[in-house]
Amino acid sequence: MRISGMTHVRTSPYYPQSNGKIERWHQTLKADCIRPRVPLSLGHARQLVASFVDHYNHARLHSAIGYVTPADRLAQRQEAIFAARDAKLSAARARRARARRARREGDAAASAGPETRLARESRGAAMSPLWSA
Asked: How far apart are CA 114 and CA 106, in angstroms?
């Protein structure tokens, strides 16, 4: 640790608030991995934790880092992911705008409505020499 410029600092005993990040990790691990699956042996527990850590780092999206995985963030792929999301969002907005426009144009045509039989007959009566008096 000294080579990398870090120093080891111990927290106060029996005071979990001083080490909040690891305590939050333990809470997540217990709530999402250990309690729902109930390991039956130490080997089974290790297997569950290993698969959970892999899922947590490579598949689970994290809100604190922009809904990307830690692996994507570490590999600096987040900008490409954000750009792809923005492109999808723009395409969806354009599709919705086209659908609204088509629906409005369809509503305008529908509000004119089909010509009724009575309207045809009254128009025909005015135009037809047979009906004129």
From this structure: 13
Task: Tell me the one-letter amino acid at 86.
Answer: D
Rounded CA gap, 25 and 17, in Å?
Answer: 13
Residue 75: C-alpha distances to residues 31, 60, 70, 86, 123 (Å):
28, 15, 9, 20, 74
Domain positions in the chain are 8-60, 66-109
Count how many Cα atoms sit within 13 Å of the Cα of residue 111 in the half-sphere of its side chain: 6
pLDDT means over runs of 10, the chain (133 residues): 84 87 94 94 97 97 96 97 97 96 81 62 57 48
Phi, psi of 62 (to 5 degrees): -110, 125
The pLDDT value recorded for residue 128 is 52
